[in-house]
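Reference record
================
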Amino acid sequence: MLIVDDLNDWVGAMGGHPNAKTPNIDKLADQGTLFTNAHAPAPLCGPSRASIMTGLAPSTTGIYGHIEDNNIRKANDKAAHSVFLSEYFKQHGYYTAAVGKVFHQSVADGSFDDFGGRVKLFGPYPEKNFKWDQPKTSTDWGPFPERDDQMPDFDSAHWIANKLKQQHDKPFFMACGFLRPHVPWHVPQKWFDMHPAKDLYLPPYMSEDLSDVPEIARIISDHPMMPTTQWALENGEYRNIVQAYLASVSFVDSCVGIVLDALENSEYANNTAVVLWGDHGYHLGEKDKFAKMTLWERATRTPLIIKPPKSSEKQVSNKPVSLLDLYPTLVKMCGLPENPDTEGKDLTPLLHNPNAPWQHAAVTTYGENNHAVKTERYRYIRYEDGSEELYDHQIDKEEWRNLAGDPAYAQVKQQLAQHLPRVNEKWSSQSQYRGNDYFTTKTEQAGGN
């Protein structure tokens, strides 16, 4: 299981950016099923990963913000009885190993047999920030350090690669959590050189994009610690930021390649499933922000590739799926008994036929009772105060025109609302938030920090 932090669709196989260079991820996509309409349970690392590893939605556990790995099962009664994905494999005879960022900090105690560690925060860092120096964020961009072997992701890739060279007397479940392209966008110069700033395509941007969204949408997506697109344009940094993100993606792609090459050259090449996912998407200027933490497409959509054992057939599915679906899918693929306590949908029917009938939607939750519902055509957002957004991706992929107030779409909204969670647990006192004041107040009310 290969996990890439803050990776949006700027991957060659997904066509999200014409300048993306990701040959290793693309090769994996050519050998398995690429889900082009996959979405995170939450647009923030902590709750998204907690949801994936427990198999429970944020609205079920009350984990809406960051949470200490060892406090996940303290969130509420439902979380207390959860079995982490890796634990479920352990219980069924698997050897488990992990390295890097798998849960939010690293891994929960006892969730893996072996853990190769994770570097603190997201370094290495230069002595002084290059471009951006604000509290509450690691955001900065520019070439640093000098060599790949000074990057934690390089070490993580080789740690897993070495595990694949060893003899294993029972089946294994391994997870490698990469840090890039999470900020700071610092990677060695050679990766920047692959993406000359002057030649880069800039994402579509409309300065009045947020004029037709509800007030609460502007409030909860406001992250003053991050640069805005207007700031980047006025200061001549937009192309430099895009370059740095693309460079970070190309670097982490090379680390993915280290692991995939090791698997291909191992005795396990033909009996090992591979799954790659990002924990959520990321805005690179769209909606006037360089950030995650919104319910719009850029923050919820992320790559998902599943390659079953012995598979080398390329498939593409546009069906709406959630990373919450990973737990039951991997369990089914490996022939283990179903865990009835998980809430995701088994994706194996789409692995057999990527265009199979699929009546489900992907739901992303950002704070208590704020949800986005994504189908093949529409994105419907309902906030805790009842306000709404609706976008028709058939005619508006950029989500520039909010149709929620158009009477012609009343029935569409009604149908999409059927996918909203029926349970919205209170914000768990174990779940904290590092972001804007709106959600900080929520966590304080819940007894968090």
Summary: The chain has one domain: 2-361. The CA atoms of residues 161 and 259 lie 5 Å apart.
